[in-house]
Specification:
The chain has 87 residues and is mainly α. The protein has five helices and no strands.
Length: 87
């Protein structure tokens, strides 16, 4: 799993930069891709929960071979150690 605090920081920063400046100069493209993939997975997991899908069925989405999320990329680009690389 990526570092949740780093993911929220990078996602918020990218959103604010894009909304207010029209560009994201503080993030690498790989960080942005990882943010989009992790955010998409969080949305899917939340929707599954809202629709009553048992949590045990959601574990397949967390598997390293899942097509929904590429966790290695998220770990690589959304950890506190790597978060500074995009600046």
């Amino acid at each position: 799993m990526p570092d949740v605090e780093q993911w929220t920081k990078v996602a918020a920063q990218a959103r604010n930069d894009l909304a207010h400046e029209g560009k994201t100069p503080r993030q690498l493209i790989d960080q942005l891709i990882a943010v989009v993939r992790v955010t998409g997975a969080v949305v899917v997991m939340n929707l599954l929960q809202v629709f009553g899908v048992p949590g045990s069925d959601n574990e397949r989405l967390r598997a390293p071979t899942s097509n929904c999320v590429r966790w290695p990329a998220a770990r690589e680009h959304l950890t506190a150690e790597c978060g500074e690389a995009g600046r």
